[in-house]
Amino acid sequence: MAGSRPRRVGVLVLEGAKPLDVGIPAQVFTTRASMPYEVRVCGAAPGLVAGGDGLSYHVADGLGALAWAEIVFVPGYRFPDRDDPPRAVVDALIAAHERGARLAAISTGAFALAATGLLDGRRATTHWHYTRALAARHPRVRVDENVLFVDEGSVLTSAGAASGIDLCLHILRGDLGVAASNHAARRLVAAPYRSGGQAQYVPRSVPEPLGERFAATRDWALRRLDEPLTLEALARHAAVSPRTFSRRFVEDTGYTPMQWVMRARVDMARELLERSERGIERIAADVGLGTGANLRLHFRRILGTTPTEYRRTFARGV
């Protein structure tokens, strides 16, 4: 990436914009040495934009920023089910997409993308409180209320505000590799990855106080990926039965325990491919996958590429 042009990110602030939704992409992609992005926050016109939750925003750019951006984030905003955004905003989003920009909605920003027609026939999500309203207002959108985010290639949507972080980290992994995504997650004190297919919320009459215990078990496992890790070993560390561990683990992460372990091993292999000169066989052993053939098999299944191709794309000049 050295010497390459920063990727251009636009954050479109609409009337009633939610402050956390605006702040997430601006914070994640803010220009710094480790993050080759340039961010512009814009509105329908330059100047003051009345936001939600008692805040307003003074934006320097108008819709011209969407003609500049390669990724356009649309944060959530208040009362999205009442009116579509102004026609000029909708047209600018369509033009950006036609030019090749990716459009990414956080929370109720999905309503703005739906107003463009670009979500018609595609899967999408939004905050769980508004999923039915999105489906009713835009019946051609395949609304999925049971996921954190949906990646349809050139259009992406996420659920409530915190899942906007998951979406941003997902985009980072695709753009820059897992090392950069993990670095950003550590800076944000966020989970390195959560499944896009994880449920938005889990209704319980009495919450079980296992969150911290399970987090400690995941951290314990991440430090032992080169060792045999079984469901029984993980459950034993968490001091619960394997059945309870499996059920709660899926609720917490969107993966079964063994799916999570495999993804963690593949992600560790990705980081070693990006940041070291170790051979494929050595990396396979270091991450607990045994052989290069096994690593190649799971790499292809999970990522759709080979370790060699991945290294060629994301190696950091080691």
Describe the structure.
The chain is of the alpha/beta class and 318 residues long. The chain is built from 14 helices and ten strands. The chain has a six-stranded mixed sheet with strand order 2-1-5-6-10-9, with helices on both faces. It starts with 6 loop residues before the first strand and ends with a helix. Residues 195-209 have low confidence and may be disordered.
List the keywords:
six-stranded mixed β-sheet, 10 strands, about 45% helix, about 325 residues, two-stranded antiparallel sheet
User: Termini distance?
Assistant: 12 Å
Proportion of strand residues? 5-15%
Overall, the morphology is globular
Give the radius of gyration: 21 Å
Please give the count of helices: 14
Alpha-beta content class: alpha/beta
Biggest β-sheet: strands ordered side by side in the sheet: 2-1-5-6-10-9
Main sheet: strands, sense, barrel: 6 strands, mixed
Determine the mean pLDDT: 88
Order of helices and strands: EHEEEHEHEHEHEEEHHHHHHHHH
The percentage helix is 40-55%
The tally of strands reads 10
Topology of helices and strands:
Blueprint: E1 7-12, H1 19-28, E2 37-42, E3 47-50, E4 56-59, H2 64-68, E5 71-74, H3 87-98, E6 102-105, H4 109-115, E7 123-124, H5 131-137, E8 142-143, E9 149-151, E10 155-158, H6 161-176, H7 178-188, H8 211-222, H9 231-238, H10 242-253, H11 257-275, H12 280-286, H13 292-303, H14 307-314
Parallel strand pairs: 1-2, 1-5, 5-6, 6-10, 7-8
Antiparallel strand pairs: 3-4, 9-10
Helix pairs in contact: 1-6, 6-7, 8-9, 9-10, 11-13, 11-14, 12-13
